[in-house]
């Protein structure tokens, strides 16, 4: 059983912490929940919160949410077995030795504006996986207070709060520099393979693939107004979509995961990015939600929010068309 870490000393981080604690509606709790019998327990700072239906594990040491599932069910998130229990390589920005732990992480968009590495890779070490400060603003909530990135000029803090069968994911991006910044918050959920991705594509959808080809070239199939990708994909792909329907769905192990958010087709998004993105390859899939471009002055901040819903999957035996219809209908009726 470990105790909560001290409050951050950086003044900008303190501002982020206070903003998120206010959003969560509480003060700090004094202890964490120990993890046993699970891979996330390999990190000594692993912390679990649970509701009557779902459970979540966070690791402040790598600024990650590493487990999400219905209670007692397999982890929906993918964890790279090579890096379980380890910390990020602090020299990754110059060496390129990026440890992609998996789980849920935060990046800054657009990727083509990242100022380190080559070809927009690797991500910013500080935002991606530098150790975060930790708070428990309530019995079913936790806050990770990230460090400010000198390279990006911003810092992130986020609160996850369990309410019924969903997780409210609230992020504050703050300009921690002495100059204006322009970024969008980028939420990335790395999920386990062998599942099925569902992406709504209504008539107003702006849809494209990363290499300027079509989603069909990578094995995506259309079922009414939903694109479906069954894992493993025919080949690796990156799909971009901005539409009036703000959700992405994933089915695995009889569990249905939905990421839901306010869809704003009139917003300006970071260059070459979309509000919904899916990166698929053989070992894992990344479900990504990107917020509008936020132009911030020093000290200013911008909120970002989404929900992660986890519910039992559809009845067994449904074909892919029926699964797509079930996911679309369920998404419309989520609280």
Your description of this structure?
The structure is a single chain. This protein is mainly beta and 335 residues long. The protein has one domain: Beta-galactosidase, Chain A, domain 5 (Distorted Sandwich), CATH 2.70.98. The chain has four helices and 20 strands. The chain has a ten-stranded antiparallel β-sheet with strand order 5-6-7-8-20-16-15-10-13-12, covered by helices on one side. Strands 4, 9, 11, 14, 17, 18 and 19 form a seven-stranded antiparallel β-sheet that branches. Strands 1-2-3 form a three-stranded antiparallel β-sheet, with no helix packed on it. The longest helix is centred in the N-terminal third of the chain and has 14 residues. It is globular and about 55 Å long. It starts with 10 loop residues before the first helix and ends with a helix. The N terminus is likely disordered.
């Amino acid at each position: 059983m470990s105790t909560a870490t001290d409050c951050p000393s950086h003044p900008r981080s303190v501002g982020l912490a206070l903003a998120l604690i206010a959003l969560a509606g509480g003060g700090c709790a004094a202890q964490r929940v120990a993890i046993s019998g699970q891979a996330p327990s390999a990190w000594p700072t692993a912390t679990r919160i649970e509701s009557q239906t779902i459970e979540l594990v966070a690791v402040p040491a790598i600024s990650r949410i590493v487990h999400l599932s219905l209670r007692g069910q397999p982890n929906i998130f993918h964890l790279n077995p090579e890096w379980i229990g380890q910390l990020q390589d602090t020299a990754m920005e110059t060496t390129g030795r990026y440890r992609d732990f998996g789980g849920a992480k935060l990046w800054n968009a657009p990727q083509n504006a990242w100022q380190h590495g080559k070809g927009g890779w690797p991500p910013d070490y500080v935002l991606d996986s530098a150790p975060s400060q930790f708070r428990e603003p309530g019995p079913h909530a936790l806050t990770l207070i990230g460090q400010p990135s000198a390279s990006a000029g911003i810092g992130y803090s986020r609160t996850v709060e369990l309410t019924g069968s969903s997780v409210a994911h609230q992020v504050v991006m703050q300009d921690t520099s002495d100059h204006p910044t322009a970024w969008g918050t980028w939420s990335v959920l790395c999920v386990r393979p062998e599942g099925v991705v569902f992406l709504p594509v209504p008539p107003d959808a702006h849809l494209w693939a990363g290499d300027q080809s079509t989603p069909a070239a990578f094995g995506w199939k259309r079922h009414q107004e939903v694109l479906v990708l069954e894992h493993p994909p025919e080949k690796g792909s990156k799909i971009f979509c901005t539409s009036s329907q703000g959700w992405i769905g994933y089915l695995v192990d009889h569990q249905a995961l939905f990421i839901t958010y306010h869809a704003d087709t009139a917003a300006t998004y970071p260059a070459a990015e979309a509000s919904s993105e899916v990166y698929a390859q053989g070992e894992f899939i990344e479900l990504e939600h990107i917020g509008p471009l936020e132009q911030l002055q020093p000290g200013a901040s911008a909120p970002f929010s989404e929900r992660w819903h986890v519910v039992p999957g559809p009845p067994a035996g449904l074909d892919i068309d029926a699964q797509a219809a079930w996911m679309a209908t369920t998404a419309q009726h989520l609280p």
